[in-house]
Amino acid sequence: GAGVSQSPSNKVTEKGKDVELRCDPISGHTALYWYRQSLGQGLEFLIYFQGNSAPDKSGLPSDRFSAERTGGSVSTLTIQRTQQEDSAVYLCASSARTGTGTEAFFGQGTRLTVV
Amino acid sequence: KQEVTQIPAALSVPEGENLVLNCSFTDSAIYNLQWFRQDPGKGLTSLLLIQSSQREQTSGRLNASLDKSSGRSTLYIAASQPGDSATYLCAVTTNSGYALNFGKGTSLLVTP
């Protein structure tokens, strides 16, 4: 596609349920990032994938959060046993490569509400 | 840990004014700095990317400068328009990692 695509755009879930959020990066982009934006807060880094290298998971807030990237393309962020504090907008970004100044492009985000 | 600060947090100006948004960062060992725009309920739109070897970038009415040694960047918006109203975010990528480190943004309102 022309840009980074995220689905669903909105998700309402009950506390304790598991959710999966999907990100389709721009074709050919090897780097993929997940961020979280809570109401009134800045963007919080969650996880980063670069090609076939081991992902940087240093931003994941707890072991309830996990992410995978299949075939170096589509990524899924999974939140198990959701809590109300998980409510936020989850943003995905991709870039052609990292470290030497290429642009990151963001999707429109998934708004997660845990009730 | 890289800390990114944006000042002011909010700004309201009448249409037509030129304005400057500020971004500062604590670790000068950066690969690049990127300015984004975020409209309410939307994702981020990339405005300008400045590589560490560059001093400035321009796109239309926007001009971004970078001073690595002092840990500062400015985004200059010329002849502001109501359509420029949005939150502007700066993000830096440092040599020690690949994540973009974001400031909390400047919320801009341009009134007709």
How is this structure best summarized?
Chain A has strands at 5-7, 10-13, 19-24, 31-37, 43-50, 65-69, 75-79, 88-95, 105-106, 110-114. Chain A has 115 residues and is mainly beta.
Give a written overview of the molecule.
The complex is a heterodimer of chains A (115) and B (112). Chain A is globular, with a radius of gyration of 13 Å. Helices cover 0% and strands 46% of the residues of chain A. Chain A is mostly beta strands and 115 residues long. In chain A, strands 2, 4, 5, 8, 9 and 10 form a 6-stranded mixed beta sheet that branches. A 4-stranded antiparallel beta sheet of chain A has the order 1-3-7-6, with no helix packed on it. Chain A has strands at 5-7, 10-13, 19-24, 31-37, 43-50, 65-69, 75-79, 88-95, 105-106, 110-114. Chain B is mainly β and 112 residues long. In chain B, strands 2, 4, 5, 9, 10 and 11 form a 6-stranded mixed beta sheet that branches. The termini of chain B are far apart. Chain A binds chain B through residues 4, 6, 31, 33, 35, 41-43, 45, 48, 50, 56, 58-59, 91, 93, 98-109, 111, and chain B through 31-32, 34, 36, 41-46, 49, 51-52, 89, 91, 93, 95, 97-105.
Blueprint of the fold:
The complex is a heterodimer of chains A (115) and B (112).
Chain A lengths: L4 E3 L2 E4 L5 E6 L6 E7 L5 E8 L14 E5 L5 E5 L8 E8 L9 E2 L3 E5 L1
Parallel strand pairs in A: 2-10
Antiparallel strand pairs in A: 1-3, 3-7, 4-5, 4-8, 6-7, 8-9, 8-10
Chain B lengths: L3 E4 L2 E5 L4 E7 L4 E9 L5 E8 L4 E4 L2 E6 L4 E6 L8 E9 L5 E3 L3 E6 L1
Parallel strand pairs in B: 2-11
Antiparallel strand pairs in B: 1-3, 3-8, 4-5, 4-9, 6-7, 7-8, 9-10, 9-11
